[in-house]
Amino acid sequence: xxxxxxxxxxxxxxxxxxxxxxxxxxxGEFAPEEASSLAEAExxxxxxxxxxxxxxxxxxxxxxxxxxxRSLRARGVKAPIIMLTGSAAEEDVVRGLDAGANDYxxxxxxxxxxxxxxxxHLRSFESSEDAEIKIGPYSFRPSARQLFxxxxxxxxxxxxxxxILKYLYRAGQAVSRQTLLGAVWxxxxxxxxxxxxxxxxxxxxxxxxxxxxxxxxxTDGGGYRxxx
Length: 228
What we know:
The protein has helices at 14-24, 38-45, 65-74, 90-98, 111-126, 159-171, 177-185, 193-207, and strands at 5-10, 30-35, 53-57, 59-60, 63-64, 81-85, 103-106, 133-135, 138-141, 146-148, 154-156, 175-176, 217-220, 223-226. By secondary structure, it is α/β, with parallel strands linked by helices.
């Protein structure tokens, strides 16, 4: 199973925040963290966790969530931001979207609708040029199928190589050869684990400092594991 996706929920309504935290974390899909103010949210964002999405209330005790959203975008934060508000007035929706929010949801809202919108924005973001994953010394951009090192060097990947890296990163644990083969190639009797092993070999030649002693793309049991 993939690692839970870190989500930051910023809302000063204790009851609503508690309910959302419980529901977001119920099946292990998300790893929600909470903040009750913009100052607390800032501390969380500077704490090292790379949140994959933000759920941001408009009315907070120390400021307007829309202004905070605008400042996040100005600082280069690309992750999806869904604004939560007590007003569904058109002018408020427009202000939220103009601030850089991806979506705007008026309270009270249905949890299933929030989850559906959150998943949709995450899928859209993953396929965009802005999506970026940290893997060892590299920044991996799945949509561009490229790895970038700290000096600006670029490594181009094939479609399958990029798919292997992305799947192993999301899995967060060892994945069997058969599972990885099915995830990347789909059901195809003509494709064997030897095909996968060949791609892994070539991928290691590109990303490992010493391909004979892999430190990023590891062989683990009957499969492979990414050590990002």
